[in-house]
Design brief:
alpha/beta, Rossmann fold
Length: about 250
Amino acid sequence: MLSASGLALRYGSTVALRSASVTVAPGETLAITGPSGSGKTSLLYCLSGLVVPDSGSVLLDGVIDVHRLTDWERSDLRRSRFGFVFQFAELVPELTLRENVELPLSLNKVSHRSRKSRVADLVSRFGLEDCADRRPATVSGGQAQRAAVARAMAHRPAVVFGDEPTGALDGESGEVVLGAMLAHAEEDGAAVVLVTHSDLVAARADRVVAVRDGETRSLCRCVSLADCFLGPDRPAGSDPPASCSCCC
């Protein structure tokens, strides 16, 4: 589905990524984790075509090289094949929650009848019936983030990218948002790529990739992410383990 190889990216003299590689399959949830400044958000932006790396490739469906597309083609790809959820909902403030959810369908020229049916289904699935016709400034953070996830899923994208999608929410609201996001993605067969600092969020993923100093490494599912980086017997700055004896 989505495969990146040898991604390198610099911002001036700062190295964000160095030879980073990652893959995610249809229907799979991949968590990208690591310390602040490690390059995980840069990796997400390169995977999604928001940032063009200095070198390396990102292939969608094994044939579309995302970074060989023109700016217009990448924009079209993000609109039609990708969905995005950010740490803060980033809804259009002048639109109601319902209109925000409908927006990607309108941009993709879905028929009026199909739009209304799809939006009604999403409003129900994400528990937005009581606030769907209110504007973002008048609803809670959890409600706004649920609307943001519904918007990201509206056009049935092939890949949903989440940049700390629960980072601004309390534990209960975050669990509701994450659960709805993963359940709906599974139903649609969408791949999910999540950047997170949270062990609890990463534990919900099918696979975990750690980013450290711009490089990627797959983590064993039974190893605590905190232990990988800052465990009591692991010196700060040392590499996380590639595997463990009990499941790898």
